[in-house]
Amino acid sequence: MKTLSPVDFNLSLLEEGFTAQDTVDQTINESSMGDDRDAFYVCDLGDLVKKHLRWAKALPRVTPFYAVKCNNSVSVVRTLASLGCGFDCASKAEIQLIESLGVAPSRIIYANPCKQASQIKYASAHGVQKMTFDSEVELMKVARCHENAKLVLRIATDDSNSVCPLSVKFGATLKGCRSLLRRAKELGLDVIGVSFHVGSMCRDPSTYTQAISDARCVFDMAEEFGYKMNLLDIGGGFPGSEDVKLKFEEITAIINPALDKYFPTDGGIRIIAEPGRYYVASAYTLAVNIIAKKVIMNEQSASNEEEDDETNEKTMMYYVNDGVYGSFNCILYDHAECLPILHTASSTVLLYNRFIYFFKFQTLVLIYRLLVSFEQKPKPDEAMYTCSIWGPTCDGLDRIAEHCRLPDLQMGDWLLFENMGAYTVAASSNFNGFATPDIHYVMSRPAWKCMQQINTQGTPAPVEEAGMACVAATCGRESSVDLPTKLCQNHVA
Ligand SMILES: Cc1ncc(COP(=O)(O)O)c(C=O)c1O
Q1: What pairs with residue 442 in β-bridges?
Q2: Which atom of ligand 1 is nearest to the CA of 195?
Q3: pTM of this structure
Q4: 470 catalytically annotated
Q5: Complete DSSP assignment for 357-422
Q6: To the nearest 5 percent, what fractions of the chain are helix, strand and coil?
Q7: I need a surface site. Which of 123, 292, 391, 454 has the fewest CB within 10 A?
Q8: Among the atoms of ligand 1, which is closest to the Cα of residue 274?
Q9: Cβ(203) to ligand 1 under 6 A?
């Protein structure tokens, strides 16, 4: 096995006591010294490691096949490959990306029920066998283009309670499954399992229960045609951040008993999932710079004599250097709501950073934190104004947020947007000539060590399930990754 090197991940390891947030501060301070205050991301790849351990604990029976469409950055997929994840690819290019990392084709599911014939031939030539279908036409195409396909029947779900429904486009009805299985048999195709997707950002966990029970029906139906299926794919739909009503563990608490009921452990069924957002959303923070500003006098308030609050007299329009044609395409395509956080650390932070870099003493880190926290505290008497935030293009559609409350900001000030890793960079364009932001990848040393251990020894079994002494070694403030001291084999086949 190849030794992992930070260079291959294009990442900087964080000095002890430092966090991804410090990288945001430092990058802002460095770029604020020059003219180019370009928008940028900081991606904490250690957050992916954390998510991976959390997944293993919450869904011990389910192997994650990360949905590449969600964020196809090489550093991200390389991290997940090193952690032993499988991959859900929707196209030839996504398969090529995963192949280029040296991932075995058995760790790929070509999870697009409507594929181009030439791309099925590519999958065939490259040993990618698992692929989804939901129509007779697709079956005939696969019969022509792929001799050794292992087919997975995608069924529709009631995803009316999900933010981004998918079953409007994909998934066979239970009624339709019988004729599809019959046709597959006639064509001599191998159907090995069932998949579904409850819709992205699922808000009703009972959708999973219903879909798992429906999948059981299809497994039983398939036996009538002589198929002994062995793969259940429960798709994606899991939240990627904590700012949601329904937490990840609340969903998995519903999924696990449903799996145990309909697919008991002794049934020999392999269970996989296709999480996208779950793994990457919270790892990314986007920093944008205010490039222009307009002050709009509110005539109604100004003429109201009883109104003496000056913050109601004007509203602000701030223009920043990334918008809905770039990272914020998630507002249009992913129904995202993006709320800004004001960045207030001053250039003195950079001096502290430099100082501490040379004198890595914990006390200095503490002094630094104290000083930064003083600087970042909102001033209690600071006036707040209603404002809207706009992207840099010439399109009126390019609005990021409205009705925000922020202090009176100036050109050159920075705004931060957290949880920006899912369906953002993957779909952004350079419309109007605006470049996509640079991404600074970072990871704490304990997280790096943990990833290396998982890479060589497999994902640790959760302590409760394994009953083994996986002592959690706390990694200090820079990361809350629980570093197991003992690991056990749980690699993706
Ligand atoms: C087939 C398939 N699998 C997985 C995903 C990832 O979903 P999520 O990001 O909600 O986990 C998607 C998203 O569109 C999808 O279409």
Answers
A1: 12, 44
A2: 1
A3: 0.89
A4: no
A5: HHS--HHHHHHHHHHHHHHHSPPTT---EEEEEE-SSS-TT-EEEEEEEE----TT-EEEE-S--S
A6: 40, 20, 40
A7: 292
A8: 4
A9: no
Q: Which two three-digit tokens encode residue 127? A: 């040993």
- CA gap 364, 356 in Å, rounded: 6
Q: Using the 8-state DSSP alphabet, how is residue 198 labeled?
A: -
Mean pLDDT, the chain, integer = 88
Residue 420, CB half-sphere, CA atoms under 13 Å: how many?
31
Residue 274 Cβ contacting ligand 1 at under 6 Å: yes
Rg (alpha carbons) of the chain, rounded to whole number: 25
Q: Are 435 and 310 in contact (CB under 8 A)?
A: no
pLDDT digits (tens, 9 = 90+) for 460-483: 877 554 433 332 333 333 444 555
Strand pairing class (414-417; 284-297): antiparallel
d(CA 155, CA 170): 8
Report how far ligand 1's centroid is from the alpha carbon of 80 (Å).
16
The CA distance from 320 to 323, in Å, is: 7
DSSP secondary structure letter of residue 8: G
Among 87, 230, 62, which Cα is nearest to 151's? Answer: 230
* 404 strand-pairing partners: 387
Please, are residues 28 and 287 in contact by the beta-carbon 8 Å criterion? yes
In whole angstroms, give the CA distance from residue 185 to residue 467.
Answer: 44
Nearest ligand 1 atom to the CA of 423 is 9
Q: How much is the average pLDDT of 59-86?
A: 98
- Rounded to the nearest whole angstrom, what is the distance from the C-alpha of residue 236 to the centroid of ligand 1? 5
Length of the chain: 493
pLDDT tens for residues 117-155? 999 999 999 999 999 999 999 999 999 999 999 999 999
Instruction: Return the structure tokens found at 300.
Output: 């109604």
